Amino acid sequence: xxxxxxxxxxxxxxxxxxxxxxxxxxxxxxxxxxxxxxxxxxxxxxxxxxxxxxxxxxxxxxxxxxxxxxxxxxxxxxxxxxxxxxxxxxxxxxxxxxxxxxxxxxxxxxxxxxxxxxxxxxxxxxxxxxxxxxxxxxxxxxxxxxxxxxxxxxxxxxxxxxxxxxxxxxxxxxxxxxxxxxxxxxxxxxxxxxxxxxxxxxxxxxxxxxxxxxxxxxxxxxxxxxxxxxxxxxxxxxxxxxxxxxxxxxxxxxxxxxxxxxxxxxxxxxxxxxxxxxxxxxxxxxxxxxxxxxxxxxxxxxxxxxxxxxxxxxxxxxxxxxxxxxxxxxxxxxxxxxxxxxxxxxxxxxxxxxxxxxxxxxxxxxxxxxxxxxxxxxxxxxxxxxxxxxxxxxxxxxxxxxxxxxxxxxxxxxxxxxxxxxxxxxxxxxxxxxxxxxxxxxxxxxxxxxxxxxxxxxxxxxxxxxxxxxxxxxxxxxxxxxxxxxxx
Length: 488
Ligand code: FHN
Description:
About 20% of the residues lie in helices and about 20% in strands. By secondary structure, it is of the alpha/beta class. The protein folds into 2 domains: about 5-375, Glycosidases (TIM Barrel), CATH 3.20.20.80; about 390-475, Golgi alpha-mannosidase II (Immunoglobulin-like, Sandwich). The structure holds ligand FHN. Ligand FHN binds near residues 79, 226, 285 and 311.
């Protein structure tokens, strides 16, 4: 089933964004051009596939505690600190806030994670430095609630950044602004002088940690911000505007997504004039755009869990629909065919092991990417009618069709506008390079504005997974015969 035909039911972005009817003065809008062309952003555009890793104290319980599942009591596995209701253990928050005292992941091997990501074909990593519980996986000078207070002690962020960078995988740091257990954090905008003083202290703490991360890990390419939806942060737009400017000045080429901050009218992701805030749209979380036009030409990435939700480790996946490699391949192609990156989340357990299902998917994705990555990396949207067979991607001089729906007659009919300057002049199976029979089929439909090119798949060609047909593009053959229009 082509996901792009799904009816738009996901979250708030399920259709073209309504562009504001009037223009408004915006002082605290985007700090960067809509389409950056510097090398860091060009690399971002070419990633195709990324890996997200959510790791922290929430990995210890793994969405359950003493045999009781948190599924009915917490919004997601990495939200387990907020477990409430009849299933929640007594004094749960106190128990959770002591988990750091037992965090000692004996199986953690950042180099092994990085090798696996490399073999999977990921070109960038988004790694949780600190999630909503405020526990920092690096030895921050600005909070005692960090990895150095645990039995593990060592700087996990450094181990991960170094290992992935050594494998040639760019690293982005996930950073949650909100901190559930920070006494200076508040949901609502500060009102009283005391609240303003308290929240300003929190803002300064946030800035200090971010500058610290840039200083400690200069190899990183960007931040992936989260937890920026509360009014306290939204109303702090002069501060957040200045902070983004300072981060960018400190780290030229830094990439920041649209979730970091808002304009002075409270508009997030897009300012009050509909312009993107940040370098790429960061709202496609567990959902994908149904049409290229919804993106308005902006860069974007989609982040996705393998289970229905739950970014942190979940011990028990039983009774859940967990996405298959084929599901994830189709989402990857849907993203890349619309100029986006697809980022798959992994949630290691409290010892640092990936879920066995995650290992399987990483391996199967890697096998596919090994043979077909050319249709993904550095490929972009092809301005063609949506194919019923799968997804088009293109590069200079080549058109790729990743086939998910193989026609029973083994003929892939490629429809192009009749006036196309470039048409398929040769075709092959990308995996293995077997040439394929290609012919221009003048079907002669009356007033038809499309030309058709038929690609014959070998009858003996067997595959149980999506495959890619690579087409070389060239000038159309000699002037086609002019057919008489029907008389009606
Ligand atoms: O609340 C978080 C959630 O725990 C997770 O980190 C996702 C993925 O980035 N972001 C927020 C939910 O939208």
